[in-house]
Every structure is written in structure tokens, then in C-alpha cells.
Write a structure and sequence with these properties.
614 residues, globular, three-stranded mixed beta sheet, 15-stranded mixed beta sheet
């Protein structure tokens, strides 16, 4: 009866009265919800304050080191392989369309990562109080049908070249068209290395000219001379283009040879005939014509110059080599599709906590004299996107997405679980812990390059970068590859920690391929930050070495940078979890180290570190 009466009265009310009552009810409900949320927030704040106060008191005690180390171990034990799996599964879903920079899928991945950082309580360390470090890029793709290359001898007929089959080219000046007509100079390996007493540009002015050079380092069996059999950065194609531009050249032709490059011409062709990405605001000099040429094309060039190619090739590897200008011009017209876009690094930080004073009270802010020695964890989230149309993948029509589950969904999943684990560490952080998931790695380490040039705190105050890139989830490893750690004063701690985790350290399996220069840690090294990646060897629990080698070879041959790098439900993430426990242990040692981490004396990155500290 009461319900019927109330209903009747409600219908009898005029609309304005009904609206007012409904608004009042909604306001009361909102107020009640706000009070509940405020109460919960107050309770959480009190709990956090109590935990922080306890941590501060602990930090001021003599037993801080031992107690904190036990806390770290306890927290490490909570690392969950299935949470890594969940991140990888989402990041490699078709919804994200291969996570290409500047497209919808890449933006979705960045927002997902930022959301995880926020949930774990990391402070934003990007632009304007956000997690996003926005970067201006320009995508460049040469139009092969509108681009022409030819060698024009001073005497004799021009030699036209076929785009993609004979050469590739990229206009690094980011303009739609460019024309080059300039003499060609052979500069051997194109290297200026004062520490080795080597300068291929000695006695020659290449300003306004086109250089031609050999891929790789000058030949050496001496580890102290261009790394012996190991590739140095001087051997990388990126260095050769950079050095040619610094010398004022308008073009560079890198001679490809499979054994020296460590990959075939198809890799060069596929990598350089698709869109290449550049930093829009990079102030370094660039080449109008950054090109590769086939070995047989190089032989034709030298024949047109009436020079013996094999003889010149051999001479380039000897001390005393002198660059020679060829009686041949490069005549080129390059037309490109230009695509400006933005993509973001995602950066968060657990800041250092002010150390309590003698009375056990924490200062409101770090003292002006405080010098951070942060640990940085990195992993790139971008991949290769997709090929438009149902026939993008001729081997499997209908699958046109490069999902990048292993490369590098695994690395991102690992640092997300690592950040989640650090968030549970209820103890003082004497130095900061930074997490960065970077973009445009597949475009030439560009996101990490920008991060290195624009770090969230000064580069000199980042003690170490630990990078995770493509860690195959195939079981628990018995070996670990930490190539580059041996170049730093921190290596003894890495050795001890690996032993504690029952991980044998193995050397770089292919030093001639220069793997150290092919992942994001290298960008941090270039600005002086000690850095290395953490990866597995080929020996896994329950299997012999042949099993691990077969798994790796199969992935590289069939799935690496292919449409088939997809998530697999039977993947075993226990090894990924083990490697982030290892990384967390190292990180704690970094931020509690009593002395700064430095590059070994004479290392190629030592000077950059010293320069950053001025």
C-alpha cells in the first residue's frame, strides 16, 4: 500500500519537482561514494605513511642493508610468469596491428603500458606531467619507379642501376626529392679511429662528393685492434653513413658482402626499400643519398674507373691505405614519400626517497647536494606493423600482421611485471628506479636514441641501463648472455649474481655480427650510461644444448621479423620470470652501491661518460 501511494504521489508531481528530487538523490549518492572513496584513500595514505615511516626508521638503523636485501628477495619471489604471459598475449593481439610507430596499434600499446605504470604507482617521467615522451618522426620511403641511379665515367657509357636489385637508397634530408651529381671517392672502410691510429679520410676532402666504402671493420685478429673478430661500431653501416655526413659528403655507397655484413642482400633490400624512420629534429648532419650497393655492382664501378677491385679491396685493409677519387660520378634522382608523425616513449619513475636525519625524520625533499645513481630498465614496444590487404603474407593469405609476440612483447611484458614487483618494495629507495618502454627500435633504435639525448634525469645520474629484447619464452635457462656488462666496473657483481641464480655467463655467440650495437642499450651507451641487455644462452633445464640451439635457429629462420611471430599458448614464461628476478637483484645492487659504476679504462664509451659528468 505504501509503495502504491508513493508511486501515485510521484506521478502526481510536476516534472520540475521530479527532476529536483532526482538530482538531489543523485547528489546524495555521489556524495556518499565520494566519502567512501575519501575514506579508503585516507586509510591507504595512513598505511603508506606507516610503511614509509617504518622504512625510514629501518634505513636509519645499522641493519638496513641486510633487512632491505631480505625484503627484495621476498618481493622477487612474487614475480609471476603468468602475468608476463598476459601482457605478451595482449600486446601481440591482432587488435594492436603490429604496434607500428605513429599508427593506431602503436598508440594503443603505448597507452596500455602507461596505464600499467599508473596502476603500479610510478610517477610520470614524460612530457608535461605525463608518461609520454612524445617524439617527432618523419617516415621516408623511396619511390623505386621514380628514383634513378647511374655511374657516369669521365670516359665511356653510363652504367644504369636497378633499384632494389642493384642498390638501395634513402634520402636522410627528409625532402620529397633530391638530385646528386658528384664524383665518387673510395675511402676503404670509411673509418676514423684515432685510438687505433686509423683514418681512411686522411689526406682527402670529400665535401660535396660521394664516398664508397666496405661494410665492416678493417680486418684484425688482435682483440685490441678493432675488436679482433668482434665487430666494433666502426663496422656498422650506421657509423659509415654518420661519418660520411660529418665529413661533408652528399652521398655514401656501402659495398655489401654477406660474410662481412653477417646477413644477405635480401636483408638489406627488405630493410631499405620499405619506409625508414628518422628523428625530425635531429641536428646531426645527414646524407641526401645513403645507399647500399651489391658486391658485383661495386666491381663494375671499379672496372669503369680502370681499377682492380680485388687489389683496392685488399689495400683498404692495410695500414697506409690512401683514399682515391675515381674518375666516375654518381648521378642520382631520388623521389620519396614523406610521412611526418609522432610516437612516444613511455617513461615512469620510482623517485629516490629522502634519507632520514639523525632523529629518524624524513626531509620533505632531497637535499640540493643529492646526486642520483639510478637504475634504468628498458624494452622497446614497437614492431613492424602490417601489410595492407589480405595478400600481405603470400605464405599464409589472410595473416598480414607482424604481431611481434617474442620481439618484443616479451621484453615489455617483463619490465611491466618488474615495475609491478618494485611497486611492492616497502623500503627506502636510496636512488631512483626508472622504467622506459621505447618506440621505433625497429627503425634504428630511434626511440632509445631520443631517450638517451633527453633522459628524465641527467645521464650522468643514471648508473646503469638493463635492457630486455626478444627473450624467447621456451623454458628455464641455465645460461645467460650479458654482452657488454664485462665492459663495466659492475661486471664482478653481475658474475656473482648470475652464480647465485645458477646461471652460467656465456659469451656473445656471434661477435662478428656486432650484436651489442643492435639493441636499445647501445643508445644509452652512446651518451655514456653503462648499459647491456639480458638474454639467454642455448642450454635450458630438462634439455640438452642441441635442443636450445634448434629452437633458436628455428625462430630466427622462420619467425623473426615475420608474420609468424605470434603468441603461443604453450609458451613457458618461467625463464622470463627468472631473468627479471635476476634483473631486479642487479638493480637493487646498483642503487645501493657505495661507488659509482664506470666504464672500464679505455672503453669506447668512457669519454662520453666523462663528458656527461662535466
Amino acid at each position: 500500500m505504501a509503495l502504491a501511494l508513493t508511486t501515485a504521489l510521484a506521478f502526481a508531481q510536476d516534472p520540475a519537482t521530479q527532476a529536483a528530487e532526482q538530482a538531489g538523490l543523485a547528489a546524495a549518492q555521489a556524495s556518499q561514494q565520494a566519502m567512501q572513496m575519501a575514506s579508503q584513500a585516507t586509510q591507504q595514505a595512513m598505511a603508506d605513511a606507516q610503511a614509509a615511516n617504518a622504512a625510514m626508521q629501518l634505513a636509519g638503523s645499522a641493519s638496513f642493508g641486510q633487512s632491505a636485501a631480505r625484503t627484495v628477495k621476498n618481493v622477487e619471489a612474487s614475480i609471476d610468469p603468468e602475468k608476463i604471459r598476459a601482457h605478451v598475449k595482449f600486446l601481440s593481439d591482432d587488435l594492436l596491428e603490429g604496434r607500428y610507430p605513429g599508427l593506431r596499434g602503436g598508440e594503443l600499446a603505448a597507452k596500455y603500458i602507461a596505464t600499467q605504470f599508473a596502476l603500479d604507482g610510478l610517477k610520470p617521467a614524460g612530457d608535461n606531467g605525463t608518461y609520454f615522451q612524445n617524439i617527432n618522426f618523419v617516415g621516408m620511403k623511396a619511390r623505386g619507379d621514380e628514383t634513378s641511379f647511374s655511374f657516369v665515367p669521365n670516359s665511356g657509357s653510363p652504367i644504369p642501376l636497378q633499384y632494389a636489385d642493384d642498390y638501395t637508397v634513402m634520402n636522410q634530408t627528409l625532402t620529397p626529392t633530391v638530385d646528386v651529381d658528384a664524383p665518387i671517392v673510395f675511402v676503404g672502410y670509411g673509418v676514423t679511429a684515432p685510438e687505433f691510429g686509423w683514418d681512411d679520410y686522411a689526406g682527402i676532402d670529400v665535401k660535396g662528393k660521394v664516398i664508397v666504402c666496405i661494410v665492416g671493420d678493417p680486418p684484425s685478429d688482435d682483440p685490441k685492434f678493432f675488436g679482433g673478430k668482434a665487430l666494433t661500431y666502426y663496422g656498422r653501416w650506421t657509423y659509415k653513413f654518420e661519418q660520411a655526413a660529418r665529413k661533408g659528403a652528399v652521398g655514401a655507397l656501402i659495398i655489401h658482402r654477406t660474410d662481412l655484413a653477417s646477413y644477405g642482400w635480401d636483408v638489406v633490400k627488405n630493410s631499405n626499400t620499405s619506409e625508414k624512420t628518422f628523428l625530425r629534429d635531429d641536428k646531426n648532419p645527414h646524407l641526401p643519398a645513403a645507399s647500399w650497393i651489391q658486391l658485383e655492382i661495386a666491381k663494375k664501378l671499379f672496372a669503369a674507373a680502370a681499377l682492380d677491385f680485388d687489389q683496392q679491396f685488399a689495400a683498404a685493409g692495410q695500414r697506409g691505405f690512401k683514399a682515391v677519387e675515381l674518375p666516375v660520378h654518381l648521378k642520382a634522382h631520388i623521389t620519396s614519400t614523406v610521412r611526418p608523425f609522432q610516437s612516444a616513449n613511455v617513461v615512469g619513475i620510482f623517485p629516490a626517497v629522502p634519507h632520514p636525519n639523525k632523529r629518524g625524520r624524513a626531509p620533505k625533499a632531497l637535499p640540493a647536494s643529492f646526486r642520483d645513481q639510478a637504475v634504468l630498465y628498458t624494452a622497446h614496444y614497437d614492431h613492424l606493423g602490417f601489410v595492407a590487404g589480405p595478400d600481405g603474407n603470400p605464405k599464409l593469405p589472410g595473416d598480414n600482421i607482424f604481431n611481434g609476440a617474442a620481439d618484443n612483447g616479451t621484453g615489455v611484458g617483463m619490465i611491466l611485471e618488474l615495475a609491478h614487483t618494485w611497486s611492492h618494495l616497502r623500503t627506502v629507495l636510496p636512488h631512483s628506479v626508472i622504467f622506459a618502454s621505447v618506440t621505433a627500435e625497429e627503425q634504428g633504435l630511434l626511440g632509445s636514441q631520443y631517450l638517451g639525448q633527453n633522459p628524465p634525469i641527467p645521464a650522468a645520474q643514471i648508473a646503469l641501463d638493463i635492457n630486455y629484447d626478444m627473450v624467447l619464452p621456451i623454458g628455464t635457462p641455465r645460461e645467460i648472455d650479458v654482452n657488454g656488462a664485462q665492459r663495466t666496473s659492475f661486471y664482478p657483481e653481475v658474475e656473482k649474481t648470475a652464480k647465485a641464480f645458477d646461471l652460467a655467463i656465456v659469451p656473445d655467440p656471434r661477435p662478428e655480427a656486432g650484436s651489442y650495437y643492435r639493441s636499445d642499450h647501445f643508445s644509452l651507451s652512446r651518451v655514456g650510461i653503462p648499459a647491456f641487455s639480458v638474454d639467454t644462452g642455448t642450454l635450458y633445464e630438462g634439455h640438452d644444448r642441441a635442443w636450445g640451439e634448434t629452437k633458436l635457429k628455428d625462430f630466427v629462420a622462420n619467425d623473426y621479423h615475420n608474420f609468424s611471430d605470434n603468441y603461443h599458448p604453450d609458451w613457458d614464461f618461467s625463464g622470463n620470470a627468472k631473468l627479471i628476478r635476476f634483473g631486479m637483484d642487479l638493480g637493487w645492487q646498483v642503487i645501493t652501491a657505495k661507488t659509482p659504476i664506470v666504464w672500464n679504462k679505455g672503453d669506447e664509451f668512457e669519454s662520453a661518460r666523462l663528458a656527461s659528468e662535466k
